[in-house]
Each structure stands twice: as structure tokens, then as C-alpha cells.
Amino acid sequence: xxxxxxxxxxxxxxxxxxxxxxxxxxxxxxxxxxxxxxxxxxxxxxxxxxxxxxxxxxxxxxxxxxxxxxxxxxxxxxxxxxxxxxxxxxxxxxxxxxxxxxxxxxxxxxxxxxxxxxxxxxxxxxxxxxxxxxxxxxxxxxxxxxxxxxxxxxxxxxxxxxxxxxxxxxxxxxxxxxxxxxxxxxxxxxxxxxxxxxxxxxxxxxxxxxxxxxxxxxxxxxxxxxxxxxxxxxxxxxxxxxxxxxxxxxxxxxxxxxxxxxxxxxxxxxxxxxxxxxxxxxxxxxxxxxxxxxxxxxxxxxxxxxxxxxxxxxxxxxxxxxxxxxxxxxxxxxxxxxxxxxxxxxxxxxx
Length: 351
Known about the structure:
By secondary structure, this protein is of the alpha/beta class. It has helices at 3-8, 19-30, 36-45, 77-93, 114-125, 140-143, 145-164, 184-196, 210-222, 226-255, 269-284, 292-295, 315-322, 338-344; strands spanning 50-58, 97-101, 107-108, 111-112, 129-132, 172-173, 200-201, 261-266, 288-289. The chain folds into two domains: 18-47, no CATH class; 49-344, Alpha-Beta Barrel (TIM Barrel). Helix 4 (77-93) runs parallel beside helix 11 and helix 10 (226-255) crosses helix 11. The longest helix has 30 residues, at 226-255.
């Protein structure tokens, strides 16, 4: 996400290069006979690139729990088609994925809706995982620990029986807004509560502003503007790949190796329509797709998380802050183009 812009304006400058990059430059001087491209290819091939893909706000980010009850169905046909395209794209790509559920999105005026639950069934039928994202997308920093725990349990009461039909149990919890506690005491209380209910926190190491692009894409869809839709799709995938590259280099700079990443996306039309191209771009870069459980086996994820800010930032940045890295470490994070932000109509720091 354009997280630093919310705090202090746009961060500019080229992407910082990791130690591996500088090692390659040093080798150039020692091995003049080897072409630069060959050395770069060798160094690149040596990286173990793995990524776990996660989607927030299931069953669908734009489903409204307060719409009037229609005579037939509460999922608009366009959303039903978009959701089906996303699941089909994930399944066709053969990539593991987990979707994090806001159970209130399954209701309309407090009443459970089978056509909304059917979206989650489709995820499970495709062999995908589901996790808890609170019932109402609550903000821990705003509502406090007790109300937040109640919201987690409200989602659990819906999610647990749904998974039990397939002999599964919910294991993963994702904090809305990536806000994990205003104080260390709140964070410790949440750790105890989640562990007591069988949940592990699903961190995010690759953040992005797909929600901005998705808002712009929704406007283009609403307006029937095919040219703008195509322009957004064409520029969105390279933007995501730049974000992956940025956090890959940040992990190398901080940890000394390419971390198995956990990437945050949202259940929306833009991701449904671009997922095959995004997967192709990652595979061209040498990435293997893994489940969140495999990614989390990396020892970096056992680092203490003492981050208490409201900024929705990557765990890599959290670890870097704990390690006392200077502001230069965070420079170069890709930002959303002004024309996309303007079309989306969302408030954000200056571009």
C-alpha cells in the first residue's frame, strides 16, 4: 500500500538494491571474462523465490450487508460472474490460495443468504482455504480488544461449521487494516485469545494498493468504458510485479535472502480479470506458489512483532523498524499512478 504517503508524503527515489545486487557488482570486477547478463542470470537463478497468495474480504469486497432483500438472490449477477472467474482463474493456475472471510458480508439485514455462502463453498470446492477476517471488518485500534474478540468469534461461529462439513477447522486469522494492537498489552492479549481458539495470525509481507485500482476499475465497469478497463488491466499487473520486486529486495537487504512472501490481494473484479497474467509474470520471475503454512515455516516469521502503529504496512517494514533501520531502508516503494487515484476517487497522500 502507499502506506508511507499517509504518514509523511510520497517517498521518492529508486528501489534500494539488496546485498546480492552489490555482490554481483563485486564479482564483475573479479571475473571480467564473464558477461554481466550471465552473472546476473546466475545470481537470479540462485534465489529461492516462493510466494503465498491471500485474498481479503470474502465473499466479495463490494457486497453490502444492508441492501434491500430482492425477490431472488442477493448477489448481483455481475459479482457472481466475477467471483466465479476469480475462483476459476486460481484453480486453472494451480496456485494455492486462502481467502479471509468477513461473515457479515454473508448477511442481508441480519439474515444469512445462501447465494452468498455459495461463494465460499465454491472456494472450498476448488481446494482453496478460508480464514477468519472478523465478522464486520472491525478495526482493533478503534473498537478495543473485547469488542474485537467478539467480532472474531462472530465470524468463527459461521466459518467453523462451514469448514467442519469438509473435516477442516479454521486455522488462520488476518487482522483488518493490518492493525494488530495499539499497545504491547493489547497485542499480547490478542495472541493469547487467538491461540486459545486455534488461530495463527496471517501476516503480510507484500502489501499493495489493489483496492485503489479496484475502485477505479469498478467505475470503468459501471460506465461501460472498455478502453479504460483495458488500460487499468495492462498497467495493474506490472504495478503488482514491481511491488513483489520491491519487497523481495527489502527482504534480501534485511534478512540476507529472499523471504517466502505472503501477498495481500482482495476479492474484487480487477483481480478476477488479471490473475492469470499476474501468475504468469511471477512464474517468469522464477516464483513458486506455496500455501501460507509453508511460507510461515521460515524462521523470519518467528521474529517478535512489537509494531503498534496504525499504518497498514508490511511485516518486513515492521521487522526493519524493530532492527533500527533508517528511513533510507523504506525508499523506493512503488506508488499508484495519479490518474488511477483520481479515477478511483479515494483520499490518499500526494502523489
